[in-house]
């Protein structure tokens, strides 16, 4: 060992207390779930009922399509949608195209603008949901 080399002993490490991470992000909203859907050709309109209170201020009618064998028509939703209760909405329909298939079906994209009042959870929509539902 070189006489000019000086070794200084290191101080022992002191473990630090770990801090818990606090997320600054709000919780993810729960998905809005459709619990019932019914077509009324007298309007024509479709009534949608959800698992909790909804807001339809941002409703986009073109995101709703109903195909019906009885009328032989494909319908599209029109604005404005009408709340008929805290969890239910009536969507007026207009003739969009002929339909020659069998049965009645609802297709709605995730862009309907229907959201939950409590946390803003969005409805993901449906594809060819048999009407009436359930």
Describe the overall structure:
The chain has 134 residues and is mainly beta. Helix content is 0%, strand content 39%. It has no helices and ten strands. It has strands at 34-40, 45-50, 54-55, 64-68, 73-77, 82-85, 88-98, 104-108, 115-116, 126-130. The strands form two sheets. Strands 1, 2, 4, 5, 6, 7, 8 and 10 form an eight-stranded antiparallel beta sheet that branches. Strand 1 and strand 2 form a beta hairpin. It is rod-shaped, with a radius of gyration of 28 Å. The relative contact order is 0.26. The mean pLDDT is 91.
Structural class: mainly beta
Largest beta-sheet details: 8 strands, antiparallel
Radius of gyration: 28 Å
- Assembly type of the chains comes to single chain
Portion of residues in beta strands equals 35-45%
Structure at a glance:
The chain has 134 residues and is mainly beta.
How is this fold's topology laid out?
Layout: E1 34-40, E2 45-50, E3 54-55, E4 64-68, E5 73-77, E6 82-85, E7 88-98, E8 104-108, E9 115-116, E10 126-130
Antiparallel strand pairs: 1-2, 2-7, 3-9, 4-5, 4-8, 5-7, 6-7, 8-10
Provide the descriptors you would attach to this structure in a database record.
134 residues; mainly beta; eight-stranded antiparallel beta sheet; two-stranded antiparallel sheet; 10 strands; 39% strand; rod-shaped
């Amino acid at each position: 060992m070189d006489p000019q080399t000086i070794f200084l002993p290191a101080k022992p490490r002191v473990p630090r207390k770990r801090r818990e991470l606090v997320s600054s992000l709000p919780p993810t909203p729960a998905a809005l779930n459709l619990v019932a859907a019914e077509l009324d050709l007298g309007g024509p309109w479709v009534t949608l009922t959800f698992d909790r209170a909804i807001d339809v201020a941002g409703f986009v009618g073109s995101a709703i399509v109903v195909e019906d064998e009885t009328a032989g028509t494909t319908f599209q939703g029109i604005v404005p949608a009408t709340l008929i209760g805290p969890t239910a909405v009536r969507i007026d329909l207009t003739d969009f195209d002929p339909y020659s298939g069998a049965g009645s079906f609802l297709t709605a994209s995730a862009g309907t603008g229907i959201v939950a009042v409590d946390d803003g959870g969005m409805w993901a929509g449906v594809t060819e949901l048999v009407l009436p539902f359930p």
